[in-house]
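Lecture 7, part B: from sequences to assemblies.

Below are the input chains for today's worked example.
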Amino acid sequence: MVDFIVGHFNYWVIITLMMTGLYVIISTGNLVKKLVGLGVFQTSVFQLYITLSKVAGGRPPIFDKLPGYGTETKYGAAVDPLLGVIYSNPLPHVLILTAIVVGVSTLAVGLALVVRIREAYGSIEGDDIDEAEYKIEIASS
Amino acid sequence: MGLDVSFDIFIVIDLIIMSMLLVVGIALVRLNNLFAVVMLYGVYSLLAAIWFVSLDAVDVAFTEAAVGAGISTVLMLGAMLLTSREAKPTPALRRWLSLGVVGVTGMALFYATFDMPNFGDANSPANSYVGLQYMYDTITEVGVPNVVTAILASYRAFDTFGEVVVVLTAGLGVMLILGIGTTRTRDGESPQSGDETTQSAPPVTTVLATENHHIVLQVVAKILIPIIVLYALYVQFHGDYGPGGGFQAGVIFASAVILYSLIFGMDETRRAIPAKVVQFGTALGVLIFGGLGLVTIAMGGKFLDYDVLTAADPILGQHVGILIIEVGVLVTVASVMLSIYYGFAGRYRELKDQDW
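Predicted structure of the full complex, as structure tokens:
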């Protein structure tokens, strides 16, 4: 039972954080705060991937030295680099590393849109923008 | 389950950092002051980065620390300054409705975790197949000690190329929406915020008034900025052997320039790195990356198959290929981050110290 709780605790915290982000996105009308909520949601997805990549007793997936590193022997010698050492899974790391940079780029596009919305409507609250939009429609009809 | 001792201590650390993340997350929901929200988001990112280190994801932690706690906090602060400082409180009905939706979704996800493998399970599906294969083959096929770099720049280079193009596209998007900051607004398109600044000369691009104060900051920054740039280059070229690579180095380089502009003002920064150079750089990096792919095709290999680059020694070809595409990544990421920052900074009204 303790094993089960310890083994799943991370998932539960991650889901709670994910729901925290989702709550902010749904509930608040403020566009900047909505984007912060989106960021929290996004980070929780990253955490889910990284938690899956952990191997008990593992090390970062960087070899101490290559076979023949620093000596005259060439790469690809018949040495098993994994012998006796546990490494964590590198693949989720790669996926998330690039996702973080793409995440900040898309966040920037979102913020740029928010800035333009503020310039056009004078507000970044969802209700006020709806109201301003409504007034424009009334005026044009 | 036979968890060894070191893993036990590790679990305690994991519990502590996870709890801290939870506290910061809840605080984010409760606050309405946007300045506090944005700063807490920076704290949240930094905590997440520490947590990534404790889970062996050193490359990810590096990126998260540079991006989450650095660039995205600066961008959010910028957007906040251009919009408003306070969020309106949510009406009670909407609060309870959202809580209901979130509660139901959370319960469904919570139920799904019962099927998930235990934390740290070496035999879980995610850790069994392709990840293990990369660990075995990297030494003989790529010959780079950092397996994350080997996968990123060689095995999945096409994927990374896609990511770089996405970054470029986002940079273009911001440039199209906000401009790159050379002119603030076009004629007759003044902001409707009712400021008195609209009729007098608009293109004030200084972020902070910097004439005769912030002396301490200026002196410290002059010492720090070269070191930050040097560090970015170290991260770039040491990425094969330790944590790091083009993505991290690009972001670190951009944050050095942003630090410079925060202290010495946008006009000085534009003189040091003109907007045209930045614009050119965004495309140049993608060109280097994709160009190398075409070169490998021309030399008889597949797209981004570095083995053919040097005829005698495929491993050397891999090293050369990784080095070149990492440079491409660095140029595009750094330029896009800077062009985004220029776009935001070009829209500031002059900001005085007492405004803070």
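Note for the exam: Chain B touches chain A through 119 residues (CB under 8 Å). Keep this in mind when comparing with the next example.
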